[in-house]
Specification:
Elements: H1 5-30, H2 59-76
Length: 89
């Protein structure tokens, strides 16, 4: 089944409209509000460096704290936290 010239031109126009709509939506996303700091190159600003050792209440808390601090030391160049006053560590 062949399309007439009129039907073919209508199909082409619809295809062009769809392509333009997709391009417009894609470009509109680029002009949206600023990205969060974790995506925009401010990864090291998301969590501040703790000045002293942080102690968690549970082993899970302590594991999360240790992982976060080690990530900051390795990827952001943080100095290790100073010992708390009055502790032997």
């Amino acid at each position: 089944m062949r399309l007439s010239k009129r039907e073919a031109s209508g199909t082409n126009a619809l295809a062009r409209a769809v392509i333009l709509a997709i391009c417009g939506i894609s470009l509109a996303a680029c002009a949206s509000a600023p990205r969060p700091a974790s995506v925009k190159g401010g990864e090291c600003k998301v969590f501040p460096r703790p000045p002293t050792v942080v102690v968690g209440q549970t082993p899970y808390d302590q594991g999360w704290i240790d992982d976060t601090i080690e990530s900051g030391v390795a990827s952001c160049g943080w100095q290790r936290p100073a010992p708390r006053a009055g502790t032997a560590k």
